[in-house]
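HUMAN: Now follow token order:
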Amino acid sequence: MNEVTLCLARFKDLFNGMSAHNAGDLGNVYAEQVMFTDPFTTVHGLTSLQTYLAGAYGNVLACSFEFEHEVVAGQQASLTWTMHLQHKRIKRGAKIRVDGISYLQFEQGRVIRHRDYFDAGQLLYENLPVLGTAVKWLRRHAA
């Protein structure tokens, strides 16, 4: 196994082990100067990523990922995933499903750049009481 493949395995384990009380060993996966981007924010540096993820997981009741397809090319990888999430403030804690993809760049066996692509509506907007109804209506009528 090369260092990218090993880091991908650590990445998957990290995200399937995270919880509101366990951020995991981010330094085992991410470089100190990592840049992380998702539909909600961009953060620079391992400390900022730790702070962001601690906040993001603060009200999580349960979260797991099914990693599906993986493409590795040199020092880059993309992987598709399905997140199964239960969050105190989303849909009253009921389980929701969010599909996404992560694009990763590696440097010296660590992730230096991580960008997540997913539909924020599928995660958040569709699952909020009033806004969710409006977003679902728009999706049905926009086609």
In short: The longest helix spans residues 3-17. The CA atoms of residues 40 and 121 lie 11 Å apart. The chain is about 30% helix and 40% strand. The chain has a mean pLDDT of 88.
